[in-house]
UniProtKB/TrEMBL annotation, chains A, B:
Superkingdom as given in the UniProt entry: Bacteria
GO aspect biological process, one term: negative regulation of DNA-templated transcription
Keywords: DNA-binding, Transcription, Transcription regulation
Gene3D superfamilies referenced in this protein's UniProt entry, alphabetically: Chorismate lyase-like (3.40.1410.10), Winged helix-like DNA-binding domain superfamily/Winged helix DNA-binding domain (1.10.10.10)
Domain HTH gntR-type: 2-71
Organism: Actinospica acidithermotolerans
Keyword Transferase on entry: no
Claim: Transmembrane helix is one of the keywords in the record: no
Lineage of the species this protein comes from: Bacteria, Bacillati, Actinomycetota, Actinomycetes, Catenulisporales
Name by which UniProt lists this protein: GntR family transcriptional regulator
Entry GO MF terms: DNA binding; DNA-binding transcription factor activity
Length: 259, 259
DNA sequence: AGCAGTAGCTTGTACCTACAAGTGGGCCGC
DNA sequence: GCGGCCCACTTGTAGGTACAAGCTACTGCT
């Protein structure tokens, strides 16, 4: 079912996690690993490449691979889904729907979702809670195809993305832009915090496997509740530093209705 | 000099950038590309895998690859180096050193850099400016090996990382943790902003190719000047959502001296 | 003892074959 | 006309060979 190289990668991950190859130590050579696992060197290399992408091992021509860090288990689903993430850290997620309506896309939404002006979107504002404490406001515009399925979802308790996947809507790629904003009076009310507190803002565009946009979201996290972590390296750097939020998106996102 | 697959990847990137294969369109098959470029299919696959890691193309068994987005040129160096990044967006970077001293590592610094308690670090506080406007405070602890070379660097004008690489100190991996904090009075004074303004905080641990820690830094960006962007996908997700800054690091980083 | 040169090991690159798994369009029958 | 089936095409997986490039440890010379 799963590919051989994925199985090998998983077993290597486990070997690193359980201390067989602690951070700072060197891995056996590709040749040795291939012999032990009974696979070709190319398969071992494929598996090790995955660990390299996750920043778990470093490699250099001529020298054996070095273990950089213990692998983190978080996957794409946990990143996109608040519910999945919450449960993975042992907290109880819940949600409170502030707004749910079908309406014409704003200019920003149309551009980000690849729609024409005034095409309809499903707009949802939810406050997300961890163990009953509000930690995030989620203002999401779904394309009609995905959004219409929301009527089948119990938004207060269920994970939207989990249910959508059951209906054949699969989130496969995402682009996240992260900056910091002060809480507006509206934000403060919804999150039960002081106005002006620093919030971590994540604007996210998620697409299906074909690259068709499915949602555009503006999430605001309470600063002392959540952080994002990225690993990168010379070989692989998915993180980009940008200049300034553009004025129109900054202005458009200061109210509930303008996202 | 450069590897074949890197050359192919570059040419494909350019073909996407210049509109030959616009976002949403489909790429030629691996077979066709291999023939056109005069290389093996495995080489084409290697190149396409790189584009996939950058979120530029999506691929699925059975169907041709889809172009997701125009590639961004930013590389690892531009992410680590404020100077390189600034010049790449056409702005003039500069810096103002507020503090530079050799002193014993704090508990946090020792843990992050893999040092023993009271091992010395070189601690630098710099305000970074874009076209003369302060946008970031950088509070960095260097391990002695790297930090001692700082005496050769003109900190007001030059890029630390560029000069260190000339001396054989190479930054190869980094782990970034991003959250939001309100500007302390100290931050506000250094950045010439109002206290309490939302700042984007990036804590960064960078290592050499072997995984040996070189620096631990806490950078604070003015929220409306800089944002970070990440692309990820089901296959590759270097981004991780974390719970809360730990109390000790949050407390330790509220003053100049405590980083 | 100390140093330089080298031989062997290790990873990187490039090529190849073969087959599996999944897509999509065209053809055929109804 | 329309729906279902099938086949050609496309990507994914797994294996292999050969050689290049770079590191390390050892040998042997001074």
């Amino acid at each position: 079912m799963t590919a051989l190289y994925q199985d090998v990668a998983l077993r290597l991950r486990r070997a690193i996690s359980d201390g067989t190859y602690p951070p700072g130590s060197q891995l056996p050579s590709e040749h040795e690993l291939a012999e032990w696992f009974g696979v070709a060197r190319s398969t071992i290399r494929h598996a090790l490449a995955m660990l390299g992408e996750d920043g778990v091992v470093a490699s250099h021509r001529g020298a054996r691979r070095t273990v950089l860090a213990v692998p983190r288990l978080q996957n794409f689903g946990e990143l996109r889904s608040f519910s999945l993430w919450a449960r993975s850290i042992g907290a109880e997620p819940s949600g409170r729907v502030e707004l749910l309506e079908r309406r014409a896309a704003t200019e920003v939404q149309a551009r980000e979702l690849g729609l024409s002006a005034d095409d309809p979107v499903i707009y949802v504002v939810r406050v997300r809670l961890l163990d009953g404490k509000p930690v995030m406001i989620e203002r999401t515009a779904y394309v009609e195809r995905a959004g219409l399925l929301l009527s089948f979802v119990d938004l207060e308790r269920e994970s939207i993305s989990e249910r959508l996947e059951e209906h054949g809507i699969v989130f496969a790629h995402a682009e996240h832009t992260i900056d910091a904003v002060n809480a507006t009076p509206d934000d403060a009310r919804l999150l039960a915090i002081e106005p002006g507190l620093a919030l971590l803002r994540e604007r996210r565009r998620a697409t299906d496997p074909r690259g068709q946009a499915l949602e555009w979201s503006e999430d605001r996290y309470v600063g002392d509740a959540v952080a994002f972590t990225i690993r990168n390296s010379i070989a692989l750097s998915p993180l980009v530093r940008d200049r300034a939020a553009t004025p129109e998106t900054a202005a458009a996102s200061t109210t509930n209705s303008g996202n």
